[in-house]
Specification:
Layout (H helix, E strand, L loop, with lengths): L2 H13 L19 E6 L2 E6 L2 E6 L5 H12 L23 E3 L2 E7 L2 E2 L10 H13 L16 H14 L6 H9 L17 E3 L8 E3 L10 E3 L6 E3 L6 H9 L4 H13 L13 H25 L6 H14 L12
Antiparallel strand pairs: 1-2, 2-3, 3-5, 4-5, 6-8, 7-10, 8-9
Helix pairs in contact: 3-7, 4-8, 5-8, 5-9, 6-8, 8-9
């Protein structure tokens, strides 16, 4: 990203930042330079004071993004999703505009999860938010355009493509073998066979939660952010990442039990509600997220010319176990 693009994003956020009263003592802008929160091929995020400007990928489907942002603004999602801010009327429709050829959305700033304090990670809050999200009937939203399928399987396929385009690694073959063991729908090669059309986030991890208003200490202020992958699909996909981490040994059993128990207690629909085995629903999505994570690890390590770290190695090892899994032990969902 060029400095000019970052500055343009900062100015877009600046344009809707509340101004002090005319008779107030002038104060310098606290954001003299763009505060870049993220800069990736699929999106650049810049903060200006309490406003965040997000520049989406150039190939973003504008109609799909508009429907997703409208969902975040819908009253039925109040207290679940961070609502968007309106863009200036002269620059686009109510919530989406274009800047430097890329769709732009504006959002209030929220305090993210502290990566230095894993014991305070809001797993239970995430579980409650997911259960509430999955309970919203998509047909009740009455959006200007229909919501597309959630992009979980599509993101997994993109990760595989990115790995294939990178410098070959000895572990690549194990990841590809694990990928081929997944059913076609989990590889984004066929529609999902499941008759569960829930409203899904599509890319749930702890980086997708913020407190709003920022630094609010009161419980209940956690909200989900990032609607780029939101859509209609199997709600089990939203539990797939923590399930994959648990299966790989990255998430402690007590944390997983608290997360899953809280989701069930909140009437979450992704798994059976009676305390039975959740893995018939979670197996395929969890394996897909394991492969996706491992593929991205190989692509990133190659791009950065560095060895795999310990966590990345554990995901590669999990892929090797998936690849070696006897066919008769695979979930019926793979057939």
């Amino acid at each position: 990203m060029t400095v000019s693009v970052a500055q343009a994003l900062s100015e877009a956020a600046h344009d809707i930042t509340p101004r002090p009263p005319r008779n107030a003592t002038p104060t310098p802008c606290p954001c003299a330079h763009p505060h870049i929160l993220a800069d990736r091929p699929d999106g650049t995020v810049v903060r200006h004071h309490d406003v965040v400007a997000k520049s989406h990928a150039p190939d973003t489907d504008r109609a799909a993004l508009t429907a997703r942002v409208a969902t975040a603004a819908h009253p039925l999602l109040t207290g679940i999703l961070l609502p968007p801010l309106p863009v200036p009327a002269e620059k686009g429709d109510a919530r989406v505009t274009v800047l430097h050829g890329r769709p732009l959305t504006l959002w209030p700033y929220g305090s993210p999860v502290d990566p230095e304090d894993p014991d305070a990670a809001p797993w239970e809050d995430a579980a409650k938010l997911l259960a509430r999200l999955h309970a919203v009937a998509p047909g009740a939203l009455q959006l200007p355009a229909p919501l597309p399928p959630m992009r979980g399987p599509a993101k997994a396929a993109l990760a595989i493509a990115r790995m294939k385009a990178a410098e070959p690694h000895p572990a690549t073959s194990a990841v590809l073998r694990a990928w081929t063991r997944l059913p076609a729908w989990a590889r984004n090669e066929a529609p999902s066979p499941h008759d569960r059309a829930a409203l899904c986030h599509g890319d749930l991890h702890l980086g997708q939660l913020v407190r709003h208003p920022p630094n609010a200490a009161a419980e209940g202020h956690w909200l989900l952010i990032d609607v780029d992958d939101m859509g209609i699909g199997d709600p089990a996909w939203d539990l797939a990442r923590p399930a994959a981490w648990y299966a790989a040994g990255l998430l402690a059993p007590d944390i997983w039990d608290r997360f899953l128990g809280t989701y069930r207690a909140a009437d979450g629909t992704a798994v059976c509600p009676d305390g039975g085995d959740p893995w018939p629903q979670l197996d395929v999505p969890a394996r897909a997220l394991t492969v996706q994570t491992a593929a991205l690890a190989l692509a990133k390590s190659a791009a950065e010319n560095r060895p795999l770290d310990e966590v990345e190695e554990m995901m590669i090892e999990a892929c090797a176990r998936i690849a070696a899994l006897p066919a008769e032990l695979e979930s019926e969902a793979t057939s």
